[in-house]
């Protein structure tokens, strides 16, 4: 293999890890509900898209067109994923779709967690994941829905917000369903 192809493959591999690290952090949204399979972290990352671009000068990576990211049981689907790394190593990620969807199997036979939103943003500087546009997160029978769901990975605080009223009409309220079994097991 010519040297330029080897270097390109290494750069692409680092860009792929950059994308996955930001997306994996975004999926920490599910972490307080239950832990994802530990073995997933040891699996290879597989990314498929219609197009991919790595901009070394601006430290950004973009995948677009039917983006599929898999690692073990983790599965993310989006129309576009854009990741930028700053000079100080902080990352921002923006995934868009109609909608962006994710799912993962949880440890201990606790089922799966899944979610969707029109857009998912993550900033490692603020440790905030933001799902916006018909945001939904489901684990078993537990469900949260709203215009926006934010999760701070440092403070482990969720916020579910409804939509603002549109010209004289009422906004959409948030909806949260917590199953009785889930409430009892949270205190243990």
UniProtKB/TrEMBL annotation:
It holds the Pfam family LptD_N. One of its GO terms (cellular component) is outer membrane-bounded periplasmic space. Gene3D superfamilies: Lipopolysaccharide (LPS) transport protein A like domain (2.60.450.10). It is found in: Periplasm. Residues 1-36 form the signal peptide. GO terms for molecular function: glycolipid transfer activity; lipopolysaccharide binding. Residues 46-156 form the Organic solvent tolerance-like N-terminal domain. Keywords: Periplasm, Signal, Transport. GO terms for biological process: Gram-negative-bacterium-type cell outer membrane assembly; lipopolysaccharide transport. The keyword Methyltransferase does not apply. Its main location: periplasm. Component of the lipopolysaccharide transport and assembly complex. Belongs to the LptA family. Involved in the assembly of lipopolysaccharide (LPS). Required for the translocation of LPS from the inner membrane to the outer membrane. This is Lipopolysaccharide export system protein LptA. It comes from Neisseria bacilliformis ATCC BAA-1200.
